[in-house]
């Protein structure tokens, strides 16, 4: 959280031999939705970013979060849902504990599962709670935003996580963003500072407030359960949401 590390990789955080079973169970139980702004990238769950500037979508997001969390745990009956396990372990490790982000006293959804189909990718982008929920008082004092991804399947080729140690100021980032699309043109950036090809079972933590991208997927889908982890300072709890 002090900013010295760009990413941390923990192999076999989830037992790789159990991944196919979990991915199948998730797909059986839940509806797989397309990402609105990215072709071929599918998801199980609704990200908070979808509620940006839309009260009705935010209401739906918050209303469905408790049931969604319960269902994810039930589907993952082979073992603990890996995002829960991570939050609980962080709770024990972090002096001020680790909680799910609350909005008006209500629990956020956490555990969005991204399914990158053949040909999909994520352009360089920065994730920001302050941008997604500009009205949230809690978002104003956030100091940094990490992403945690637990990889449940990998592509035949591609799907490399690319990280830059740069963070563009919000106005500059907005100005460079593709109109109506997601992320910025990779041509406008230099080569990434780190590249990680995730293996099944890996947990990778990185600073999602900084520029990051996923290279084009080839072949089988790449699947990852994810969470954002907000850092509000050393004396504050870590907060998880998707
Ligand atoms: O799937 C990945 O490796 C990273 C996806 C991403 O953009 C994020 O977790 O913020
Ligand atoms: Fe991201």
From TrEMBL:
Pfam families per UniProt: WelO5
Keyword list, A-Z: Iron, Metal-binding, Oxidoreductase
Protein name in the entry: 2OG-Fe(II) oxygenase
Domain of life: Bacteria
PROSITE patterns, A to Z: FE2OG_OXY
Keyword S-adenosyl-L-methionine: no
UniProt family annotation: Belongs to the iron/ascorbate-dependent oxidoreductase family.
Nucleus found in the keyword field: no
Domain Fe2OG dioxygenase: 104-231
InterPro entries tied to this protein: Oxoglu/Fe-dep_dioxygenase_dom (IPR005123), WelO5-like (IPR055091)
């Amino acid at each position: 959280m002090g900013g010295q590390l760009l990413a941390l990789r923990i192999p076999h955080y989830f037992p790789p031999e159990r991944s196919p079973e979990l991915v199948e169970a998730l797909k059986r139980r839940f509806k797989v939705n397309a990402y609105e702004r990215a072709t071929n990238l599918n998801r199980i769950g609704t990200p908070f970013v979808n509620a940006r500037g839309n009260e009705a979508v935010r209401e739906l997001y918050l209303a469905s979060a408790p049931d969604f969390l319960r269902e994810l745990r039930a589907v993952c009956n082979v073992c603990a849902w890996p995002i829960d396990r991570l939050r609980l372990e962080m709770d024990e490790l972090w002096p001020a504990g680790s909680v799910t982000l609350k909005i008006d006293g209500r629990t956020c959804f956490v555990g969005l599962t991204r399914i990158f189909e053949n040909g999909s990718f994520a352009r360089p982008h920065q994730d920001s709670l302050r941008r997604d929920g500009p009205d949230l008082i809690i978002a104003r004092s956030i100091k940094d935003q990490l992403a945690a991804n637990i990889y449940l399947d990998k592509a035949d080729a591609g799907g490399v996580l690319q990280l830059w140690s740069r963070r563009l100021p919000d106005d500059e980032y907005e100005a460079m963003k593709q109109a109506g699309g997601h992320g910025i043109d990779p041509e406008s950036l230099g080569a990434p500072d780190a590249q990680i090809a995730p293996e099944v079972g890996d947990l990778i933590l990185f600073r999602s407030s900084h520029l990051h991208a996923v290279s084009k997927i080839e072949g089988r889908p790449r699947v990852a359960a994810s969470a954002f982890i907000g850092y509000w300072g050393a004396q504050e709890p870590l907060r998880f949401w998707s």
